[in-house]
Amino acid sequence: MDILRDILLQVRRERRATGHFNASEADHMRAIVEACHEAGTAAIIGMSEGEREHLGVMEAVALRDAFRKEFNIPVFLNADHTRSVEKAKQAIDAGFDAIHIDLSALPFEENIAGTKEVVECARLQTTNYKLQPISIEGELGYLRGESKVQQEKIEVKKEDYTNPDQAAEFVRRTGVDRLAIAVGNIHGISLDEPDLDIERIRAIRAAVPESVALVLHAASGIPHDQIKAAIAAGIANIHVNTDLRVAYVHALKEALASHPDEAAMYKLDAPAFAAMKDVVVRKLRLFSTPATIES
Ligand code: G3H
Ligand code: ZN
């Protein structure tokens, strides 16, 4: 049961979702793992190219192993938004459990070719070393924004949304385990309230085999009712970054301002750690309550 694929299938059956939380520091990882441990769920930790360059891929893997030992829960590392096959291979070699190969900015055929190459590389690694299967996530559609509080309005265009027929073809030809979709979501906290196209999620879910998990990125700032509706429509995994970053940095700034003479970082970042952990706890509560609207 501690294989990511089984966990994603299980939550889908129960009309729930798993959280995927980003980290760039050891204490971010601890905040996520502690929250997941308390909630009794597996921890899925995402690291973008920038985040893993900051911590180091080997260091991230070593920390994951240490957290698995300490907390005795499944802890998965996902190489989030990996924009090249080369970087994906680097994360596979380092021992990441999951790769998000994001070639969504490329033309459809190039996206398929690169994603397929990563899937094949992961399968080969699994066969050679008899490791647990490495879960591969592809992305189709165009997701705007980045993980920050947006200062300008970002327009989401319908033509950027994932097309259900293309999604079916993409999954069939690449063999991905997870699919990230664009359905009105924007990375970061946007000025306007996001407006997810729930019908589109339902249509993609119907077009793609149930064995492939649908992933909703950019969940920071999305109202709770839309998250619940997205889960009911077929989302099994939800990515959150900005809400965590904001909570952490805000608490850190307050600690710095209120303790100007303190020089011990581990004391200053304790409230930041607690604030981040609290966000993860609240998100897990939201994602794990079974969605009532049937898909
Ligand atoms: O891959 C990471 C997530 O999509 C984060 O998005 O910063 O909007 O929460 P977010
Ligand atoms: Zn994302």
TrEMBL record:
Task: Kindly indicate whether the keyword Acetylation belongs to this entry.
Answer: no
Q: Which Gene3D superfamilies match?
A: Aldolase class I
Report the domain of life of the source organism: Bacteria
Which cofactors is this protein said to need? Zn(2+)
Entry's cofactor comment: Binds 2 Zn(2+) ions per subunit. One is catalytic and the other provides a structural contribution.
What InterPro entries has UniProt attached to this entry?
Aldolase_TIM (IPR013785), Class_II_FBP_aldolase (IPR050246), FBA_II (IPR000771)
Which biological process terms from the Gene Ontology are attached to this UniProt entry?
Answer: carbohydrate metabolic process
Please list the residues that bind Zn(2+) 2: D102, E139
SUPFAM superfamilies hit by this protein:
Aldolase (SSF51569)
One Gene Ontology term of the molecular function aspect: aldehyde-lyase activity
The residues annotated as the active site are: D80 (proton donor)
Positions with a binding annotation for Zn(2+) 1: H81, H187, H217
| Keyword annotations of the record | Metal-binding, Zinc
PANTHER family, from UniProt? D-TAGATOSE-1,6-BISPHOSPHATE ALDOLASE, D-TAGATOSE-1,6-BISPHOSPHATE ALDOLASE SUBUNIT GATY-RELATED
Record-given protein name: Tagatose-bisphosphate aldolase
Please report the organism this UniProt entry assigns to the protein: Candidatus Sungbacteria bacterium RIFCSPHIGHO2_02_FULL_53_17
